[in-house]
## 1
Amino acid sequence: MTLHSLDPRSPWVISTHELGRRPGAMQQLVRTLPAPEDLGVEMIGVPKDADVELSLRLEAVMEGVLVTGTARAPLQGECVRCLDPLTSEVEVGFQELYFYSAEDADEDDQILDGELLDLEPTFRDAVVLSLPLSPVCSEDCPGLCVECGVKLAEADADHGHEPRVDVRWAALKELKITTDDDQEG
């Protein structure tokens, strides 16, 4: 259950004043907001302050305000195979019920602060859950050479390396394993 005092000047705080507490009342909103910081996973995310395009529908219901929407935001990251920078876009849908009262809500539910709701946690959850954990620049990206680090997409067709043998184990090559058949003959 999220219950704290919200700042009405925060871009992600939305007023539900026009809805009142009249079930069935609805409001459509289209906004462009700055992306919050730390919105992503290790290799890809939404850059801080990037434009996030929101299309929202707020509906008053008996328990609170139901928010349904879509969000579109740019992504920046790097390919996990070749480490090249990559850019993309994410579009997510979300739906969250913001309860009028903490008594009606469970522990993980969102609560209205008077007539205000904070959309950022709902948006953050939707975006982070939709991000690829291993983004690639292309599905057939061959990555980097494990020996020298050259990009395999740019390497010659005959790119390769002689197998290296650890000198500490070189003596093992000279050993001959004898089996029962070798000992009998």
Note: Residues 120-130 form the longest helix (11 residues).
## 2
Amino acid sequence: LKLGPAERILINGAVIENGSRRSRLNILTPGANILRLRDAIHPRDANTPVRRLCYAAQLVLSGDRRIEDVTNELLEGIEQLSVALRDPISHEALSAARKAIDAGQAYQALKSLRSLIATEAMILSLART
């Protein structure tokens, strides 16, 4: 994990701040929940279908929810998005997110879902015009 100066991360519920220089950490514990705080979605910004799913996965990484508590919500949301987002790249990301959720890997699910934020923003901006 490469960190910029003063960058903050959340590891298993603990906020860690890097010093004044770039650094690199090796996380040795398998299954550790890690979230870069610069990538975190604020609750008020979870205002679109993709962002709501990202936020649900993020809650698992922050330790506020268990993966079992959000699995149905995530899988139902992914199913709904697969109807709306029909391009191959989106379907690939949704498929990867579904597999990650099935495997209990919240970070991988979040990573796959985050890749859809720009696509969703483009679709929503076209719908407004």
Note: The chain has a mean pLDDT of 93.
## 3
Amino acid sequence: MGGINQEKILNYLKNNDRKTLTEIRNYLDKNIQKPVVLYHLKKLIDLGKIIKNDDKTYQYYSGQNIQLVKIPCYGEAKAGTDAKIKDNEDPDYFIAVPPSCLKGYNPKDLFIMQVSGDSMEPTLYDSSYVVFKKEFGNIPKDNDVVLYKVNNEELKIKRFKNMGNYAILWSDNFRNHNPIEINEEYDYYLGRMISIINA
């Protein structure tokens, strides 16, 4: 990987305004392949150290130099909120988050749910807030943390597991919670987790 490392990228962005992928690559080493630079940029985004702007530039995130973005929150992962999510009705409230929580997605495609219970510990803790990407009508990828409406009544935050001929919703705290087999007629995929906001 030549002379590339995340600290070098971070220092470069700290001392400069918005920079494109090409500019960052040229600063590091023109011979480095773009996917390698993108890999390190994504890691820094995931750590909340930098953000990717709408114009595809990258910027250091100090916590003060970025305007927060309001995302609708539809309460706890319990029954009765998915219709509002689908129809973009008024949420319970809004939460202001840094752009790093958006992971490059349009805020209009995102919503927030609050975790209720311990079934996803240690990945998600009770009262944590989770940012989801709307995925109505799509098919989850294996191992994604997802929001599902189960038995046409209760919202669950679980891990999607493809078992071949069927799929299950898996709890990371599996010793205390049984898996749920997905019924395609009564269970609905609503969103995929992209980031966590700890309470």
Note: The first helix runs from residue 6 to 14.
